[in-house]
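Notes to self, ABC transporter permease:
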Amino acid sequence: MTDTPSPSDANVTVRTRLDRIPTSATRAWLVGAVLLILPEVGALIQFTLSALPLGETAVAVADRIPVLLSRETIPNQGTLVPGEGWQGTFLGLSPARAWGLRVGLIYLYGALCLYWIWRGYLLYRNRYRTAGWTPFDDVVSRFRGHRWGQFGLLVVLAFLILAVFAPALGPTTLEQNAIDPYSYELDYYDEDTGDVETITVGAANTDTTSQGIDGRNVGPLTYDQYDRFHPFGTLPSGQDLFTQVALGARVSLFIGLLAITISGVIATSLALISAYYGGIVDLAIVLVSDATQSLPQLLVVILLSVVLSQTWLAGLYSGGVLLALIFALTGWPSLWRAVRGPALQVSERTWVDAADSYGLAPRTTMRRHILPYIVGYLMVYASMSLGGIIIGVSGLSFLGLGISPPTPEWGRLVDVGQPLLTTMSWHIAVLPGTLIVIVVTGFNALGDGVRDAIDAETDLSSEEETSAAASGAGG
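result:
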């Protein structure tokens, strides 16, 4: 039995091919995927159980599941005892090096997972895909030469890893850092007593605030007097800034992905309906879109977030679900207009008429023969819109709206640090603000790269020219 399907298998489903062609490469990829998932399966279970209303007992049981890349496995908090070195950190390393080691391993693990997913796609494309070629193949080839788009992809992937692994990347936990710091203790070496003392995290935070004056500032890449390393420094409350930034990335990603998914589904569905049926149906959707888009989105978002702030929706994920719904329901017209034109263009092609003549159901025709040609446009504008949503959420939090504390959010961090911008505590506002600019620029760059790689109009015209040339040669 060969590994490569024969041409006669063109109409065989992928499931049938997997059953008929259990290649060694497929088995090797599956084994590798399992080996990659196993070290972090505990983190997945913990996240799932903590999100479900199962009580504290289930969460406590989940916390006992070992996780390879975690703060417990590679601890970065310890005590520097003169003559004995660091106590309590991973292999006796300094907190900075232990934290850096954990961060490096997490990003290496994330890169390896992404690479393995890519290898899985190549395996599917070369061995199991029914079509020998799809337009996506050309998109990938063109994107490989687009340096600006690749820069955007790297930024977006780094942001995704930061958001997904946020609890493990922070030097401390949100519970200790902000929610209930006085319930936790830490050990430190007291030079006055010459002994190791104990203090609550809340009291230590009070002594390590950053307020822009001498003696009241813990800047980036420095230690405080309790031997804690702060990669981004501390907040005016003494909380670790990097921990808040990492967890804030997860909040921004959740809101952005949920909002863009909802608006993308609405926009794509309406674009397909508009393109296929046209006429009065298209006109009705245009009127609804114009009516929605005529409203100033920012004012509508602010109004709805205030009006609905006391509803049960505002209690879901500290208001993140409510913000995602508001951005989705006010932002779908722009996505719809972006994909409506290409959908109308494709709907006039001969293959769509041929599909109708064969008696395919309208839903099947839209899904098979129109949707593949507008997905690229949707990806482009969705990527750019995602950056806009992140800015919008940050702006609302900056104004005191949006995500409710103590859940961290980048815009609120900028707001907290704004009065200290010209002092030695500049890092509080500058670092989160810089990350916002870099991430939004990355999403826009990725959108530019995908747009240039797709070049759908050129593909369509090239197909027409090829068909005309073939007809002329045949004549």
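- Residues 17-72+94-132 form one domain.
- Residues 241-277 form the longest helix (37 residues).
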